[in-house]
Write a structure and sequence with these properties.
- InterPro entries: HCO3_transpt-like_TM_dom, HCO3_transpt_euk.
- Pfam families: HCO3_cotransp.
- It is found in: Membrane.
- GO terms for molecular function: borate efflux transmembrane transporter activity; solute:inorganic anion antiporter activity.
- This protein is mainly α.
- The chain has 3 domains: 72 residues, no CATH class; 138 residues, no CATH class; 54 residues, no CATH class.
- The protein contains 12 helices and 2 strands, in the order H-H-H-H-H-H-E-E-H-H-H-H-H-H.
- Strands 1-2 form a two-stranded antiparallel sheet.
- It starts with a helix and ends with a helix.
Amino acid sequence: MLVTSFLFQALSKKTCFHSIIRRCFADYGMPISLVAASGMAYWGRFNSANPATLPVGAAFQAANGRAWLVKFWELDGKWVGIALPFGIVLWVLFFFDHNVSSLIAQGSQFPLRKPPGFHYDFFLLGITTFVAGLIGVPAPNGLIPQAPIHTTSLLVMGHPSRKVDEEGQADTPARLSDVVATRVEEKDFDPSKLAREVPVGVVEQRVSNLAQGALCLVLLTGPFLHILNLIPRGVLAGLFWYMGADALRGNGITLKLLYLIRDKTLTPPDEPLRKVRKSRLILFVAIQLLGFGATFAITQTIGKHNVLLNPTLSGY
């Protein structure tokens, strides 16, 4: 699952195949890998391993046969007090988690026309979280529509602009209306730059957000629950490995470490980190790594026995 997903991602960045096929590799490579890996678990001798699969319940039924509505008005006051700190931690994590993911999904690498439009989902997410508390289901965090992988799937790719500005920068990303043809007439223009596609726009709509929410309801029906029950847990583990490794490649700490070990002669002159003193950059990265190491060590030791500690550390 992990290797196949990265293979599709690598093929999407090559010059092989038509641009439509490469785009399909980029958008649907991970789902194809998930389906293929799940099917392989039941093929030939692999089926004899009897892999553990995703546990499911009855269609549109709450877990353990309980009622859907939580009768909170019948709870004793002491249980409300016990649940209060858990609710506060969830509230803090809710704000942190969603706002950070929202800001990442509006990064400068995405040519959005209306970036604040993503914050409209925050209001809707608050309503759904309130309803989730009343019926006793896990609170939705909204990370799918707000994830960078979702914005990436909505990108419109095009070729760099051929218009050379006064500084001589010929590979500035063009606007959506300025996607140029691949024919080159200037003798001093590098044709290899036209083969490289860059983001020129984003399909800013809410249909995909609504479709993802609707698919969650569809997957609660009996036939689709049976299909979900066929997915091996190892395949899901590979899916999370891919998502984590893919996010790690574009992580700020990773990019700074790569900059520090990169040959200066091969570093682009417009690299923003060139404006920062190397000593300050090393100090900043060291603090980040120290904080990560401390958080990881705590969550893997005393944090395993303290359910309040993990989300609090993650939030701060």
